[in-house]
């Protein structure tokens, strides 16, 4: 049973505040995007299915968030609402920018043949609204991020937002790993896979504890443990950033250049290159995370 706090039953700020307006635009642009694709634009293969999943998933969760905040139902949920909304906004930003790049890349063309001018126009319009979806989610992240010296939810801090990005980048690495990357060829590259997997799992656990609001129940200091883990993740990714390129692109173990007979889209060398690039991306993210973690600890003690 909901408790009567003596205030209004409906929270109009959920739809009239800058964040609320951004969420309403997310719903409007998201609905328009997948409606254009489903009606006439069309989609196919795993790329198109992924884009449709992104737009419908983000639309459904955003509707859920606005409904809960407008009716105060979020007070009945046993989660940290601020951490949940901040984490979702960051995740939706990453997913929507990926879909906004993939859909026009694979489905939009300037000419009408062979799909027809009407289908082409629908796909172009869907791509434009897909870009708008990304923009309004990025605006929410900007509006809800922690300001310097502000006491706020962990997932709204730079360190918390970076956790979402780190997990997302790890998913890209896993996708390249399963795409015939030949990682099992050497024990050294298997070590790199273990590094990616371990850091991904721990990062997801950190996010899960923050979103569920269970950090206070832990028998060890959560904040200090996260900083220690981040330092360890930096060291692990340094090892992967050294080992993976050596065993994939050194002439003794792999190939410095892309083989000429390697098929586009099904080439182990391409997957190895993607993994190498995003290994360095995640290493940089963990280094920045470690630097901001120190800042968070200092501010929280003021």
UniProtKB/TrEMBL annotation:
First-listed, main subcellular location of the protein, grouped into a coarse class: membrane
Subcellular location(s) of the protein: Membrane
Membrane disposition: Multi-pass membrane protein
Gene Ontology annotations for the cellular component aspect, listed alphabetically: membrane
TM region(s), chain numbering: 20-38, 45-66, 86-110, 122-143, 155-179, 191-220, 226-249, 273-292
PANTHER family linked to this entry: MYELOID-ASSOCIATED DIFFERENTIATION MARKER MYADM FAMILY MEMBER, MYELOID-ASSOCIATED DIFFERENTIATION MARKER-LIKE PROTEIN 2
Membership in a protein family: Belongs to the MAL family.
Protein name: Myeloid-associated differentiation marker-like protein 2
Source organism of this protein record: Aythya fuligula
Phylogenetic lineage: Eukaryota, Metazoa, Chordata, Craniata, Vertebrata
